[in-house]
């Protein structure tokens, strides 16, 4: 019998949807996993609860105020060192005492610590797709240079990964792969008319029919920007091009994606829409462990449906594909403008149907330059956010 190594894990974004799902899998396997560090933005109460249960060596909050509040609550737990700020985030992500880092901070804020984990050669469980979308080639170059093991956690990319020979995930041609079939749920507004889309609320956008997720990705699913970001993510992870990837709406969210081969075979990974499956796959890979997910009852589900995405009603998918084709800093600008537009929509300051036009205008107003350094990417991110905010103010609802 092979005995598995005990993994020491750092979770960036521990209080979020992916973070809590990761801890739920970890909780089931105390013999396999220990928690080295947990990080969160400002949710002190939730972090305190997690620290009491998982006893990490470090707990990192985004700012000093939150860290002070957490230290007070944790005064009975001197083994936990509470830190704050971006530098501390990078420090725990690269700490030699952890071998596995779950990258589950949402948005561009996740790029620096995820990169720190990559540069330190960790097993990086990549949920934070925005980091890869922003910095694509530089990110993958850093992976190659350090020998980090990046395992996809996004359910579609984890499915594709499971359907490929593990030694050929970046050599799809060599593996005889002819197409990647990326599935999409279609989101909560799949059947809404263009007119109905103008009146949807943040609460409706966040009520995803199949998945329970953080607010930002829920809105991205509703606009189909999530699929656009995933198209770019797949191109970088699997070293392929958008021409090789077809997006199909599959409202049941049971087939998480498929890979087509030259001999006519199509391999699919199926499962209930529960992120603990891809998370457990990444945590234990190449072994399989109990994820706490109920067995899939295919025969009760009975049928699968498919349709093509409607790019007229959901232009974000097209905008993402175009930004990838443009290359350079365009995907970073797309991502920054989307983050600003989604935040404004969630705050009631922008209509849902205005999200794509804010992104399109920001892309049009920003010069694309080669993405030759992370500094260039961060500078473009800042520039694009300022432009997007201006546009948002102009059309305040
Ligand atoms: P979430 O909003 O539920 O959680 C985000 C976490 O990041 C929280 O712990 C929060 O405290 C932390 N955080 C937010 N801003 C921060 C900042 N500026 N500095 C430090 N920490 C910060 O988000 P989520 O749904 O768990 O998604 C996390 C990532 O995983 C996203 O990139 C998302 O696209 C990706 N993802 C999520 C799902 C899902 O089912 N939720 C599926 C696939 C991919
Ligand atoms: Mg996904």
UniProtKB/TrEMBL annotation:
Under the heading SUPFAM superfamilies, the entry gives: 1-deoxy-D-xylulose-5-phosphate reductoisomerase, C-terminal domain, Glyceraldehyde-3-phosphate dehydrogenase-like, C-terminal domain, NAD(P)-binding Rossmann-fold domains
Residues annotated as domain 1-deoxy-D-xylulose 5-phosphate reductoisomerase C-terminal: 150-238
Q: Which domain of life is it from?
A: Bacteria
Please name the GO terms of the biological process aspect recorded for this protein, alphabetically.
isopentenyl diphosphate biosynthetic process, methylerythritol 4-phosphate pathway involved in terpenoid biosynthetic process
Q: What is its EC number?
A: 1.1.1.267
Ordered alphabetically, the record's keywords are:
Isomerase, Isoprene biosynthesis, Magnesium, Manganese, Metal-binding, NADP, Oxidoreductase
Q: Which InterPro entries match?
A: DXP_reductoisomerase (IPR003821), DXP_reductoisomerase_C (IPR013644), DXP_reductoisomerase_N (IPR013512), DXPR_C (IPR026877), DXPR_C_sf (IPR036169), NAD(P)-bd_dom_sf (IPR036291)
The residues the record assigns to binding 1-deoxy-D-xylulose 5-phosphate are: 129, 155-156, 185, 208, 221, 226-227, 230
Q: Which residues form the DXP reductoisomerase C-terminal domain?
A: 270-386
Which Gene3D superfamilies does the UniProt record give?
1.10.1740.10, NAD(P)-binding Rossmann-like Domain
Q: Give binding positions for NADPH.
A: 15-18, 128, 130, 214
For this protein, what is any one GO molecular function term? manganese ion binding
Under catalytic activity, the entry for this protein gives: 2-C-methyl-D-erythritol 4-phosphate + NADP(+) = 1-deoxy-D-xylulose 5-phosphate + NADPH + H(+)
Q: Where does Mn(2+) bind?
A: 154, 156, 230
Where the record annotates domain 1-deoxy-D-xylulose 5-phosphate reductoisomerase N-terminal, the positions are 9-136
> Pathway involvement?
Isoprenoid biosynthesis; isopentenyl diphosphate biosynthesis via DXP pathway; isopentenyl diphosphate from 1-deoxy-D-xylulose 5-phosphate: step 1/6
Q: Which cofactor does it need?
A: Mg(2+); Mn(2+)
User: What's the stated role of this polypeptide?
Assistant: Catalyzes the NADPH-dependent rearrangement and reduction of 1-deoxy-D-xylulose-5-phosphate (DXP) to 2-C-methyl-D-erythritol 4-phosphate (MEP).
Family of this protein: Belongs to the DXR family.
Identify the NCBIfam families for this entry. Dxr, PRK05447.1-1, PRK12464.1
Q: What is this protein called?
A: 1-deoxy-D-xylulose 5-phosphate reductoisomerase
**Source organism lineage?**
Bacteria, Pseudomonadati, Pseudomonadota, Gammaproteobacteria, Pseudomonadales
Task: State the encoding gene.
Answer: dxr
